[in-house]
Design brief:
The protein is of the alpha+beta class. It has seven helices and 14 strands. A hairpin with a 6-residue loop joins strand 11 and strand 12.
């Protein structure tokens, strides 16, 4: 007889966990309780671990450097995730649709889209979301906080991803190379646009 490896199930959404403590930590997402506050910028978090991760934003200590481009990171895990950008490997495939992902975490997050369940509710307004990540992004609308600051110029951003995109402006690194004409770009989105407008358009004209 097989035992369930994730016996602790959330009664609000479809997530399940190996440990009861992990379930308790997750349930904070649905209750909206935020007892852990950053004393540097005032942003509050429901979980202490999220606060600890966030506080790295306020320090310039980034010992983990990417050997392909000029980016550096405060945590080795963030570096490992970043390096997948350069490999392009998307080994985690959704069995419902054709999408594939670089990280298993991103695949698991994506699968919630197919359920249609909007279990993540904003405690400030009436909006609800399928993904926890979308709720967290939305909540910044109510706080107006921009905790992610560029160390080169005076700009600040609500989302870390937007800061990372912006920082490429200050770098001469062009890590995204076209496999057809070898032209390189600062951003992956620029490479994709190049492929569509230059090579795909020319292919269609043949």
């Amino acid at each position: 007889m097989h035992t369930d490896p994730r016996p602790h199930k959330c009664t609000t959404c479809s997530k399940s966990f190996k440990a009861y403590g992990a379930l308790r930590a997750h349930q904070v997402v649905h209750t909206g309780a935020k007892d852990y506050m950053c004393f540097t910028c005032g942003i509050a978090f429901g979980r202490k671990g999220d606060l600890n991760k966030h506080q790295l934003v306020h320090t310039d200590f980034r010992p983990h450097k990417c050997t392909t481009c000029s980016k550096s990171f405060g945590r080795k895990g963030d570096l490992n995730k970043h390096q997948l950008v350069h490999t392009g490997i998307r080994a985690h495939k959704c069995t419902t649709c054709s999408k594939s992902f670089k990280l298993s975490r991103d695949l698991n997050r994506h699968k919630q889209v197919h359920t249609g369940i909007r279990a993540y509710k904003c405690q400030t307004c009436s909006k609800s979301f399928v993904l926890e990540y979308c709720l967290k992004k939305h909540q910044l609308v109510h706080t107006g906080a921009r905790p992610h600051k560029c160390t080169t110029c005076s700009k600040s951003f609500a989302l870390k991803s937007n800061l990372q995109k912006h920082q490429q402006v200050h770098s001469d690194s062009r890590p995204f190379q076209c496999s057809i004409c070898k032209q390189s770009f600062k951003r992956n989105s620029h490479l994709k646009s190049h492929l569509q407008t230059q090579h795909q358009a020319k292919e269609n004209q043949k």
